[in-house]
Design goal:
The chain is α/β, with parallel strands linked by helices and about 350 residues long. It has a single domain (about 10-340), classed as Metallo-beta-lactamase, Chain A, CATH 3.60.15.10. About 35% of the residues lie in helices and about 15% in strands. The protein has 10 helices and 12 strands. A 7-stranded mixed beta sheet has the order 1-2-3-4-5-6-7. Strands 8-9-10-11-12 form a 5-stranded mixed beta sheet. The longest helix has 23 residues, at about 275-300. The N and C termini lie far apart (about 50 Å). The relative contact order is 0.13. Bound molecules: zinc ion. Zinc ion binds near residues 129, 131, 214, 233 and 241.
Length: about 350
């Protein structure tokens, strides 16, 4: 079901080389409790014509929990930026959406597919992190369900305040050659941080955040009763991400802490949903890169030599989307981390 289109991703990488604002101390945490009441569905006009064909549907991954596994390619005019894994959890108080996608157009498709699962209203949305492919679809949700509460990490709200949301809207428009035109920033208004528990109807959403990982804005959302966790881009499968907004060591340690919860089902930010073994496999990739950087550093090799080692030690991942583009930058980044750790 996955599109395997080969596209030039250098343009994408260039476009994503946006300097993020310096990290500030996260603002105070609001232990928000989602309202358990249903909101009225408000019909709004679709902003633009959308996909001629939207070949993605939700698949059940756990009790009351569904995921639409998006394409693993990067944003382009055909996919309108769609590349992530939107999720939906059915609760007794309404529907909860995780990461509604990359644009208003994608968000509208996600809503149309959700309506095939349930006619309940969407009452809450969680955004896993600042990267726009995960949350620019908030706009469509808010237009259709104005009472829905949108949650994100405090640092995500800070970065959007500093213009990062607008940067993502522009980046998405450029990459999709205008196919996401009409998308605007609809930021989370409610903050959640580590150990927060948001109860919606009879379902508890437990938030995990252990410092910088894939970015410094990540939350992992555990749906306690359903034994499933939405990992955001802290874990991917069959795709390698740009890692330059986070750290290898932070990513590895955050995911290891998450594993202590012994959840059964793991939803990555991109790629198929899996079990603990899938998560362990991704940690192994990150660890292998970091260890190659340590070896290069100890042997007085250059940052650029890490790739010579990792081409051999990461051969098991060579068919993952993004491997060729990321293997070099990942090695160089891990080398910088090793260097910094030495001083
Ligand atoms: Zn990301």
């Amino acid at each position: 079901m996955y599109l395997q289109t080969k596209i030039s991703i250098s343009a994408f990488l260039m476009a994503l080389l946006i300097a993020y604002p310096a990290s500030n101390e996260a603002s105070s945490t609001n232990h928000a409790q989602a309202s358990a009441k249903k909101s009225e569905s408000v019909k709004t006009e679709s902003i633009t014509s959308t996909f001629d064909d939207f070949p993605y549907a939700f698949e059940q991954v756990a009790n009351n929990t569904w995921v639409m596994h998006g394409p693993r390619e990067t944003p382009n005019p055909q996919n309108k930026g769609f590349m992530n894994n939107p999720g939906v959890v059915i609760t007794s108080a309404g529907l909860v959406v995780i990461d509604p996608g990359s644009s208003v157009q994608v968000g509208e498709h996600v809503i149309a597919e959700i309506k095939k699962l349930s006619d309940q209203a969407i009452v809450a949305v969680f955004n896993t992190h600042i990267h726009g492919d995960h949350w620019l679809g908030n706009q469509a949700i808010k237009a259709a369900y104005p009472e829905a509460k949108i949650y994100g990490h405090p640092q995500m709200l800070v970065e959007i305040d500093h213009g990062e949301g607008k940067n993502w809207v522009n980046t998405m428009n450029r990459l999709t050659e205008g196919a996401s035109e009409g998308t605007i920033v609809v930021a989370p208004k409610h903050t959640v941080d580590n150990k927060d528990m948001v109860k919606i109807g009879g379902t508890q959403f437990k938030i995990h955040h252990y410092g910088i990982a894939h970015t410094n804005t990540d939350i992992m959302i555990e749906v306690v009763e359903n034994s499933v966790v939405f990992l955001g881009d802290n874990v991917l499968t069959l795709r390698l991400p740009r890692a330059s907004d986070g750290t290898f060591m932070g990513n590895i340690s955050s995911v290891k802490k998450m594993l202590e919860s012994e959840v059964k089902v793991y939803v990555p930010g991109h790629g198929p949903t899996g079990d603990k073994a899938m998560v362990v496999d991704y940690i192994k990739y990150l660890t292998t890169i970091y260890e190659a950087a340590q070896k290069a550093f100890e042997e007085d090799l250059d940052s650029s030599d890490v790739i010579t080692i990792t081409r051999k030690t990461t051969a098991a991942y060579k068919d993952w989307s993004g491997y060729e583009e990321q293997i070099g930058p990942h090695g160089a980044q891990a080398y910088s981390e090793v260097e910094a750790a030495e001083f």
